[in-house]
């Protein structure tokens, strides 16, 4: 029997999918979004009856309206909102184009903002809102400045929205993963060989000498979604093997 309802954006692979699996296993009914219908259908099949998929791009406002309508139709509101969808590409300062900037900010910043805004009327009292940031928001990374700036903005959202929604007992927190072994991380490289080199290089920069696993990030999401974190809001939890702390 499901006792809670969650929405996870960008949930067809990596951290989003792992979080959806984790919450569904705990008895939460999970709405998943993704841009590709085939990947969305596969994720729902993998999770089982506690999941429903809605094809949507968080950078598209009509798509977000459709997501809100589907959640509203179920009639249970939302107890957990995990605004996870996002992405980025490498671009050195001299190579940044307006398109690169606009695409990254529209998805990571605009998508997060308007996802939370669209779901705001559906959030139950005491709901937990979780935003996907990155440990890069406090680090310098060559050729990744636009992405890092978007994640700094997401961290700021968590603080401001926590202050704004505290009267409804809604908690807003952010997670800040380090490098995690996901298809999205591999996709930053051009080809399998370059991807392997990228992953090895990133792992070498982590004090624990490895990449994170999506399931490890999902465990932190489950914690923030649960009453175990009931006295936390406006916080950012670094889940990065010590990369930003040591």
Walk me through this protein's architecture.
With 246 residues, this protein is of the alpha/beta class. The protein has a single domain, classed as Rossmann fold, CATH 3.40.50.720. Helices cover 44% and strands 18% of the residues. The protein is built from eight helices and seven strands. It has a seven-stranded parallel β-sheet with strand order 3-2-1-4-5-6-7, sandwiched between helices.
Brief summary:
By secondary structure, the protein is of the alpha/beta class.
Please, how many domains? 1
Name of the level-1 CATH class: Alpha Beta
Named at the architecture level, the CATH assignment is 3-Layer(aba) Sandwich
Hey, roughly how much beta strand do the residues contain?
A: 15-25%
Which H/E pattern describes the elements?
A: EHEHEHEHEHEHHHE
Rounded Rg: 17 Å
Helical element count? 8
Please give the alpha-carbon distance between the first and last residues.
43 Å
For the residues shown, what is the average pLDDT?
95
Q: State the strand order across the main sheet.
A: 3-2-1-4-5-6-7
Number of strands: 7
Please give the largest β-sheet.
7 strands, parallel
The helical percent reads 40-55%
- Counting helices, strands and paired strands, the structural category is alpha/beta
Q: What would the keywords be for this entry?
A:
single chain, 246 residues, alpha/beta, Rossmann fold, 7 strands, 18% strand, globular
Secondary structure elements and pairings:
Layout: E1 4-8, H1 14-25, E2 28-34, H2 37-47, E3 51-55, H3 61-74, E4 78-83, H4 98-119, E5 123-132, H5 145-165, E6 171-177, H6 183-186, H7 192-204, H8 214-225, E7 236-239
Parallel strand pairs: 1-2, 1-4, 2-3, 4-5, 5-6, 6-7
Helix pairs in contact: 1-8, 3-4, 4-5
């Amino acid at each position: 029997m499901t006792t809670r309802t969650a929405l996870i954006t960008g949930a067809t692979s990596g951290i989003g999918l792992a979080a959806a699996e984790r919450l569904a296993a705990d008895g939460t009914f999970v709405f998943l979004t993704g841009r590709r219908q085939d990947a969305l259908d596969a994720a729902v099949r993998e999770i089982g009856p506690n999941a429903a998929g809605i094809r949507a791009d968080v950078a598209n406002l009509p798509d977000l309206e459709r997501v809100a309508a589907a959640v509203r139709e179920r009639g249970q509101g939302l107890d957990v909102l995990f605004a996870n969808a996002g992405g980025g590409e490498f671009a050195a300062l001299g190579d940044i184009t307006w398109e690169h900037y606009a695409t990254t900010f529209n998805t990571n910043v605009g998508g997060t903002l308007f996802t939370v805004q669209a779901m705001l009327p559906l959030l139950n009292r005491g709901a937990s809102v979780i935003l996907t940031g990155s440990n890069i928001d406090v680090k310098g990374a060559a050729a990744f400045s636009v992405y890092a700036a978007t994640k700094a903005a997401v961290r700021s959202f968590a603080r401001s929205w926590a202050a704004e929604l505290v009267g409804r007992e809604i908690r807003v927190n952010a997670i800040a993963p380090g490098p995690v072994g996901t298809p999205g991380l591999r996709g930053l490289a051009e080809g399998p060989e370059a991807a392997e080199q990228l992953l090895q290089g990133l792992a070498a920069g982590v004090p624990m000498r490895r990449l994170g696993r999506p399931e490890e990030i999902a465990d932190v999401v489950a914690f923030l979604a649960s009453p175990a974190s009931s006295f936390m809001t406006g916080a950012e939890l670094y889940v990065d093997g010590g990369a930003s702390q040591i």
